[in-house]
Amino acid sequence: MSGDAFIEVRGVSKSFPSPGGARAVLREVSLEVRQGEFVAILGSMGSGKSTLLSILAGLLDPDAGSVTIGGERIRGIRSDAAFVFQNYSLLPWFTALENVRLAVGAAFPDLSRDEQRTRALRTLEKVGLGNAVARRPRQLSGGMRQRVAIARALATEPQVMFLDEPLGALDALTRESLQGELARLCGDGDGRVTTVMITNSVDEAILLADRIVPILPGPPATLGRPIEVALPRPRSAAQLAHDDAAAQVRTHVIATLTDAVVGRGAPKRCEGGPGAPDRVRPTIRTRELQPAAEETS
Amino acid sequence: MSVSIQRLVAAAAAALAISGCGGSSSSGAAAAETGSATPAQLAIEKPQLKLGFIKLTDMVPLAIAYEKGYFEDEGLFVTLEPQANWKVLLDRVIDGELDGAHMLAGQPIAATIGFGTKADVVTAFSMDLNGNATTVSNEVWTAMLPRLPKDAQGKPMHPIGAGALKPVVQQFRANGKPFKMAMVFPVSTHNFELRYWLAAGGLHPGYYSPSDVSGQIDADVQISVTPPPQMPATLEAGTINGYSVGEPWNQQAIFRNVGVPVITDYEIWKNNPEKVFGVTKAWAEQNPNTHLAVVKALIRAAMWLDAGNGANRKEAAEIISRPEYVGADVQVIANSMTGTFEYGKGDVRSLPDFNVFFRYRATYPYYSDAIWYLTQMRRWGQIPEARPDQWYHDTARQVYLPDVYLRAASMLSAEGKASKSDFPFGTDGYRPPTAEFIDGVEYDGRQPNAYLQKFSIGLKGNDTVRGASSGD
Amino acid sequence: MSTLVSILRLERFPTLPRPRLHDVARHVGMPIVAILIFLFVWSRASAGIETTLGQIPGPAAVWQQAGALWADHVAERARAAAFYERQERRNAAILAADPAVRVAIADYTGKPTYIDQIVTSLKTVFAGFALASLLAIPLGIACGLSATINAGINPFIQIFRPVSPLAWLPIVTMVVSALYVSPDPMFEKSFINSAITVALCSLWPTLINTGHGVSSIDRDLMNVAKVLRLNWTTTLVKVVIPASLPLIFTGLRLSLGVGWMVLIAAEMLAQNPGLGKFVWDEFQNGSSDSLGRIMVAVFTIGIIGFLLDRVMLTVHRLVDFGSKR
User: Is A241 on the interface with C (CB under 8 A)?
Assistant: First the structure.
């Protein structure tokens, strides 16, 4: 696995000042992501996932450790990276088209304004918003806004995408339908964009990711062993609901997280270069299983 | 929401449409012939003028010159703008915002010698003689009344000297209350005449010194500045016990029952110079023809005001009762303007020379008038050190421009609008010595220092003022 | 306004039951009743107070004076028209006699009417307000973006904010006199003095609110600018300023209110021919009509201030895009 790592995170630590002294949020976290891979970082709220993603994206600087993408250490935000926030973060005074065009204009300043608009339009059509381009965010539903945010990210033709719980603010029904969309946009098609996504939904992670990295709650948070999701694409929620392999992965993932919560046993760390990921081998403790994530099926 | 916007827009549009073209002055046409019926030989440098005035009845020559078209006849388009107070008026003339103004006779003099803002201000036209009075509060009047000599009908005999006020002042001070009076400006005619009257009655009105310009050093009566419109109210409140001011504020006091006028300046100094038309020296030098034209128009206005033994005075009172001029009620103005003066409720006496605009050579700028003011400024310490007589004569010549006046006068005579005999062409600029003062002291403008020696109260010779203002 | 809206709503749904009526009664009826009570109390009270300027005028007298001012305005306009007519005839006569002569075209020099004075006041307040906004908004943005700049400017804000216009005016007058020397000035000095004084007193709310608005924009929006890698100018123009517009407009609205109040005081001393000068001149007139006319001015000033505020509020609502992102 090492060797063709596109994104490499080594020993990253981060603390934040707090009234009682510095609070360590991440401690010596390491991770590798291959090019074209879709990695989901899975954990419950407040576990430090957003911090980790922000450091990966270059929004935050780590206190220790490094992040390299494509061989070079990142310095702030890369020009070929795109970020989708949990709270859409569209500019409310611009229309959907303008929001996307702004991103295109910043990424491709040499294009004429018209060309930028055309590209923006095309991307919006791709996410299914072709007839809502002239609306402002307050006139769009939550789901539509998130599509615009995704379109904004995609329109810049990024090499890397960072998604921070992109569907977290939506209701369950919208979330489901958009998961399908996201799978289609990010997962399928050629030249897949390297993607790192944060989520708190196991099913979502299984639907979208190639690899799931559980984040074990701290503080400080650490990463559990990555779990391969070797399921064929294209995937759909309906299909996965009855798939045995998927069920196994789910069980494994939940168990890993539960372990960490209930047992607080020796946290599984990845030291230095990560070892081979766990295959589907659930570890069942004698204590009661408490679901770390919502689903238990 | 949209309804309110529409309304606002409609209202705003209506307002703007209504306002149409504004009326104030703006940059006027270049010098050009006016083409009026009388061929004007003067090439006016600046036809659009803005002149300032204070809302006192003796601004009337300016109003008449405008309303009767005398300014227009000369090719002048004048805006008359009332000013907030004397200081603002003087500052704006010096600043150039006003081309000229209705000024206290003392203002050009004080400005030239540097008491207050220093600037070269000159005048070629004296606007009137007399025209102010001193009023005291009802309380003071009641205290004064028993000691005043009465005539056959039991009314007090006028003029009332300040000697009648003296016991009242002493009573006040014995009770621990200072006796306060107000006037309109430190170099106003009101200030000097009030002080003259008080000193003539044995009361010390206070000195000025270079370090203390309150004018209350050693004072028996504390004199300070109050804006005229506030005088009746402060008199009623008891903050001051009397004031000296022009009209309509003395007649207002009677009208509103807050005080009683005790003496007019006509009685203090018969036919004293009161207001002048002042401009900056620079302006006069840059606009000689315009200056002449203004003086011509003002002379005609003055002639109209004194014509026919006061036949036009009633109309004059009506004109200046308009809010853009003096604005007071016409019956209050009419009293003094038509030659009567109400000394007490119902006690109306004839005083045809309360306002004199043209008779007695009122409009000629006599050097001796300027010198009288200089002597009084010296007497009370506004001029802190002794000056030789020649200094007085030289200063007067710096400020007063009788040759401009005479040129205007001869032009008017040539045009047939006046006759040469109306004007004092042969004079040397000094009125003959006169003793028509309340205390009978003779004033000869040719000998200012000798004049000062004649007074018991006041600086003279080489006197200077020492020390700060006295406590009471 | 909301009362009108509620009435409109009422008309659109005539079948709504009584609760709606109660609403209208409260929002429209109550103010009317309050105004009537006020008028009644005023007319009673004024009859009893006698000042040195005469009796305090009641509502009827004030209304009469308002009518007199209007009639005055109309008469003055007629006089101006007559003047121009006279001038035209005169000039035509001259030109007929000798076409080579250059004739003088003079402006009418009558006094400014009440309406002229209102317009002058409005022009002056907007000039001052524009000047204040030009100074305060860029400075406020700088303060909001940089805590260092904010720390540097803050002492000045705290010290100069409470200064009254009457204290600024002499200084402003003298500085303007010294600097603005021109033989044919485009603006009257009184206008400039008043406008600058208004600017000096009214720029603080805008400055403070702009700084606050810029410094408190949502971190998420700034993150958007960061991840999109927008350059500094684009971030400023497309993110920072639109995000802070609501607070900027709050500041502008407050500033306009302050400016209008300050203007009246400044005009009295600077002699700008507006409503402030009108009040002072009437006070100096001391006629029996003066108090009534001053009260007309008081109501005019209040109503105009209210309208200005409403205009700003409407503009504010237009730029408030809400927080839904």
Answer: no
Domain of residue B137: give its range: 132-271
Residue B220's pLDDT is 92
Domains: count for chain C: 1
* Predicted TM-score (pTM) of this structure: 0.76
Segment B8-16 mean pLDDT: 47
Question: Pick from C101, C189, C268: which is nearest to B84 by CB?
Answer: C268
| Domain-located, residue B93 | yes
Instruction: Answer for the pair A74, A83: CB distance below 8 angstroms, yes or no.
Output: no
Q: Is B82 in Cβ contact with C284 (below 8 Å)?
A: yes
pLDDT values of chain C reduced to their tens digit, one per residue, 325 residues = 656 555 555 445 555 555 677 887 888 888 899 999 999 998 888 888 877 667 788 898 899 999 999 998 999 999 889 888 988 888 888 888 877 777 777 778 778 889 999 999 999 999 999 999 999 999 999 999 999 999 999 999 999 999 999 999 999 988 998 888 776 778 888 899 999 999 999 999 999 999 999 999 888 888 888 888 888 898 999 999 999 999 999 999 999 999 999 999 999 888 899 999 999 998 888 888 888 999 999 999 999 999 999 999 998 888 887 655 5
Based on the domain organization, do B123 and B198 belong to the same domain? no
- Per-residue model confidence (pLDDT) at position A1: 39
pLDDT attached to residue B366: 93
Residue C118 maps to a domain? yes
Domain count, chain B: 2
Q: Answer yes or no: do B223 and B235 share one domain.
A: yes
Q: What is the pLDDT of residue C19?
A: 60
Binary contact (C227, A77; C-beta < 8 A)? yes
Residues of C in contact with B4 (CB under 8 A): 1, 4, 310, 314
Residue B461 within any structural domain of the chain: no
What CATH number corresponds to the domain at position C133? Answer: 1.10.3720.10
Same domain, B278 and B322: yes
What is the pLDDT of chain B when averaged over all its residues? 87
Nearest C-alpha in B relative to C288: B329
- Taking an 8 Å cut-off on Cβ atoms, the answer to whether A138 and C321 are in contact is yes
Structure tokens at C244: 């802070």
Q: Do C101 and B33 touch (CB under 8 A)?
A: yes
Cross-chain Cβ contact C227/A81 below 8 Å: yes
State which fold the A36-61+159-297 domain adopts: Rossmann fold (3.40.50)
Residues of chain A in contact with residue C233, where contact means CB-CB under 8 angstroms, are: none
For residue B1, the chain C residue with the least C-alpha distance is C1
- Contact between chains at C285 and B55 (C-beta distance less than 8 A): yes
Range of the domain at C255: 114-319
B347 assigned to some structural domain: yes
Q: CA C78 to CA A47: how far, in whole Å?
A: 82
The answer to whether position C8 is within a domain reads no
Residues of chain A neighbouring C228 (CB-CB closer than 8 A) = 102-103, 106-107, 152, 156
**Does C101 contact B77 at a Cβ distance shorter than 8 Å?**
no
